[in-house]
Structures are given as structure tokens and as C-alpha cells.
């Protein structure tokens, strides 16, 4: 295989250094202090690429911690900045500065939804955009059609369902640093729920499942302003059950013990979640998951190995004793094989290569050509690393 | 005076044709079907420039009505489109298409806040941006500093107060087609309130003023979703007064009779409104205004000629009989002299000229140069047309 860009280890095992820009959203720092999926993944990927010797510039909020060169258009993460009412200006400032210095990078990797599309149209051949959010939004298809030249990455194959015709270059599943968590023993005697209190993640179902399975439940979750009423009226009354413990939002340092000591993670989602980061965080701690068959769940969870995939609260209740029989060492091993940050970085480097080959050898791709290339014609890297 | 761009009438009174892009927001059509200030002004300006023989392309929603060439990224105005949840993609599509065809225009006039700044940095020397909104927002100054090369227009001098150091090229007051309204007789026997029900426009004060002045009040206003609770709890109880008539949102065809028959327009604002379009709509009907001394009011209203400027509800009550003594013919005449669409178009053409001279003769202006030029050094066209 030819390797014009020197992305692959040569005979001496040396990978040629690339100049890479990673562009994170500014809502959370990289990594986030507490909750925050996208910025967390960008941070893991950035530090891994630095470790591999690449020259990486991270566009992120000023309170980010990184070994890459940090370019910050704002001092603090915007979610925690009470002065900030409109996040768009800071994103525009970051994108403008990047556009002015685009020549200094071999590849520019965006994690900023579609915000950068208009500004980077003429640079499409050296960009890759990971879409981190749900894609079943009515206003997204016109955007993806208009900017059909922009190379896209999905974080699960399920995520693509609403727009299978978009310009997909591959699926790359998220990964975590292998040393972030050690395997836990799962002997805390409780079930775990982690993340956010909101209707689509069904904390009420988690409480019902734990109660009917006869086990305590510990909930580590934030409550966004938009979900305040839901929390007050629907969830808070359920927290009076003495076997339910609500500990609020927790950070990385507490997460290992919280997940590692849990008998299982409950993931009773009621929406097509594009990638459940909590699932692989549990696996990294050797903890089995009991997850509803929605969105990316069947791609992430190996039924009977790393967890149990269920279709109802009844099935979830029945799954609790089964989950506790799963081999925690095997779960941790599957995490290392499938969801390490090393695997994620390799997948992305391969896609950087694919973009650069197409961007420099082909003519500027027309919108219609982009729209014609469907989901079946691309390279679903994530899937090939699956099982 | 040299005239390299041929913007001024030559000896035969002929103005050389310019290729002008007008870029409207997409929330309302141009003109709006009902309420909507910015798109209304863009529409008036566009049609006037077409009438003067310029080659105008209007970027606006597909349900706009114009004699210019219409470029529409969406079929309908977004505020009335229940399918639309995120307005940004459609604005991005419009700006992208415009950027691709920027060479086809001599001048590009934006009315889209700061949305176009990153994409048109390299075209700054052929752009003009009218900022239509309030400027005392905490996230705006970083944006105006980063994009200090973009030529800006204010719609009143008062509007600039929070950012006097920005790259102002002038103030241009809004204007209306002179034939839109005829002078009314003001013999309806009622006071008028028009616009939006919201705390900062103080419809409650309008009701109090009318009650204490012993006159009926007619309210023609929309209620936005965000103001629903305010309307239900604070205003609706006041509407039980039989002398207060709430007629909801009205269109252009009804507005003439509504304002023309009114004894006076009450404008008891409690915020620094950048330009009160209703004030000049009233003047166009010969109707005096009673307006609070906030924001642009002292620039628009000539105290004792076109209305009365007051500082309190007490003063407003006392002003009602005085307002009825003002000469309605003189009010209409001052409207024609100061707030016609012809005057607005002349002001803007002069600023297009100023931009083109600086954009082509000067080097690319540095950000610091832009930031140094303050409010006193520019050409405040609006003021010179004032009195």
C-alpha cells in the first residue's frame, strides 16, 4: 500500500509527524470538569495524538488542560460562565483564527457540529468533521445537502439513520485512555445510573428496575436548567425511596470508584443515543451494563459478554441477576480491544489519510457527487473493529 | 468632488447602476406579513434602490415580495414555519451562496447581525453591515473587536453607546415610503399602542396613562411565546377596563387607519430602543407621539413639533392634551423631510461610496486602526439630516 502522507509506521515503526488541528466546542473545557461528552472525547484524542508525536493544536476554552498547543477564544468554558449569554461569537472567533492559519495544518478535525461549514468549504479536502449529536433534526438535511463536500464521520452507524446519504467517510467509535480506569470489583452492592436527569434517559425507569430487582440504586447525574421542572415534579418524589441515593454530578476522579464498585450500570434510554459514553466507561471498569436496545446500544454492547441488551423494564429486571454472572475481566478485555483511545486515534488517522488522498488527487468534489455516495459505499471503520 | 464609482447623479441626473446585494434575516418575509422591524426596513430600502435603477439581489425568505432578484434559502419566513427549530442553517446557506457569488456584486449590505463576519472578512471592503439590535449584550464586544475591519452602520447614535469604539461608518435612520401612509385626521377619539406586549415596552404604563388622561386606548400588538406569562399575569387583567381595546397583531393595510385615526401614539418604553419604527409610522400619518426619553427617542422625536418627550407617567398624562394641539400637517411634513425611504437610500448610497473608497484605495485596514477610529471621527449622516 502506498503511503504518500507518511501516516503509517515505516519499517522502523516511526509515524511521520502531522500538523493536526482539533477544534472542540467551547461549552465545556477539554477535558470537562464534570459532565460533557464531546469535549471529553476531543481531549482523549488530542492527548493520544500528541503522545504519538504529532504536532497538535487544540482550539478549546482557555481552562482546558492539554499537552497540545492551546488556542483559546475565551478564558472559561461557556456552560460555567455566567457572563455568557450567546456562545456563538466565541465559536466564530475560534473558527476565524483557524481559517486565517489554515495553511499551517495538514488536517483540521472539527467537532463543532456544522458551525464551520461555510468558512471551510474551500479547505474541505483537508478537513474531517465528527458529528457528535443526534441527526434527526428537521433543519439538518438542508445543511448537509448544501455542504455536501464536507467529509463527515459518525460516532455509530445507528446515528446515520436519518441521513444515510450524507458524505460519510466512516464511523469511529469513541475510545478512552486505557489507564483512566482500572477494573473494579463490583462489590458495592448497588446498581448505578450516571449522566443527566432528563426524560429521554429515563431515570424513573432506572429507579423502577432497581426497586423491582431488590437492589439499591445510586444516581450520579447533573440536572440542566431545561430539565429542572422534570426533575422537581417527576424524579424528586421517587428519590424519597431510602434505597435510592442521589449524589449529584461527579468528576473523573470519583467516577472510577462509582462505576467499578457497581454491580451493573443501568442504561434505560428512551431515545436513539448516538453513542453512550457511559457504556464504555462502565466496561473500562469491568462493570456490566443493562441497556435498552436503542440507537448505538447494539453496536457498543455485546449481549452476554459486556452486558445485556433489553427491550423493556421487565426484561431489565430479569437481567439484573444475569448481569452479575458476567466475567468482569472479560468485560475489561473487550473494552481494551474495542474502545481504547489508541484504537480511536488509529481509526481517525486512517480517515485523515482517506480525506487527504481524495482532497489532493481528485478534483474539487461537486455537491451532487457528495450526495450520491451513500452509506454503503464508505469505510465503516468502527464496524470492522467491532467483533 | 470626484465620483469614481458613479454613485451620484451626473449632469443629466442619472445615477450609474450599481450591483447591490441586500441580505435580510429570515425570521420574517420582506416585507413582513405582520410585525417585524428589520425585514420591513430592508424591504423598503431594496424596493427604493430598484426604483432608482440599481441592480439589486435580495437574500430573504421565499415568501418575500420584491422587484429585486430574490435569492431564498428557505421557502417560508422562519418565525411562521412550525417545522423550523434551528434558524442558523438557513442563514448559513444564504451566506454561503452569497460568498460563492460575491464577485457579482459591487456592494453587499448585511442586516444579519454578526452572522456573516467570519465568511466575509476578506470582502470587508465591499460590505456594509447595519446592526439593527441592541448592542449592550456582553458577548458582542469580543466579536466587534475580532472583526474590527467590518464597516458598521448604527440606526441611531444612542444605539452605539455600549460600543462607541466599533468601526462605525455612520448612522442611518430608518425611512418609510412616502406613499405608504397618507396623513390621518386623528379624530378616532382614542390613544394608540402598537407593537409587542413585553415588559420593556410597558403596555401597563400605556394603560395607566390613557386611564388617567380620561381617554380610551387601543392596543394593536403581538404576544411572543417568551412574553406569554407576562401577558397573562400582568396585562390581561388590565384589559378588563372597558376603555381598553386589545385588537391583536395588525398588518400594514390596517395600520394606516389605526394610527391615522389616533389622537396620539403612546410610546412609554423602559429600555434603550435603538430605533422606534412605530414613531415614524405615526408621524407618517400625521399623528403626534408621546414618548419616554430612552434610547433613540430624542433623536427621532422633535419635542413640541412631532410629539412630546416625557420622563414619567405623570408627565405623559399631562402631555396628552398638549399632543392634541400639535399641527398634524407639520408632523407629516417633518416625516417627509427626515424619515422618507428616499432619504434613507441616499444615506446608504453615500456610505456604500465611503466603504468602496476606503476598501479599494487603502490597504487592508488593521484591526487596531479600526478600533482607534471612534464615534466622533465618523460621518453621522443621520444626525446631519436631523434638524
What would you say this structure looks like, in words?
The structure is a homodimer of 387-residue chains. Chain A has a 7-stranded parallel sheet, sandwiched between helices. In chain A, helix 1 crosses helix 11 (341-361) and helix 4 (203-213) crosses helix 9 (313-323). In chain A, strand 11 (264-267), helix 7 (277-284) and strand 12 (289-292) form a beta-alpha-beta unit. Mean pLDDT of chain A is 89; it is low at 10-14 and 362-387. Chain A is α/β, with parallel strands linked by helices and 387 residues long. The radius of gyration of chain A is 21 Å and the shape is globular. Chain A has 13 helices and 13 strands. In chain A, 50% of the residues are buried.
Beta-strand content estimate of chain A: 5-15%
Query: What's the main sheet of chain A like?
Result: 7 strands, parallel
Low-confidence stretches of chain A: 10-14, 362-387
Number of helices of chain A: 13
Topology overview:
The structure is a homodimer of 387-residue chains.
Chain A: E1 19-23, H1 37-51, E2 55-59, E3 69-71, H2 88-100, E4 107-110, E5 127-130, H3 140-146, E6 152-154, E7 168-171, E8 191-196, H4 203-213, E9 217-222, H5 228-235, E10 244-246, H6 252-261, E11 264-267, H7 277-284, E12 289-292, H8 297-300, E13 307-310, H9 313-323, H10 328-338, H11 341-361, H12 367-372, H13 381-384
Parallel strand pairs in A: 1-2, 1-4, 2-3, 4-5, 5-6, 6-7, 8-9, 8-11, 9-10, 11-12, 12-13
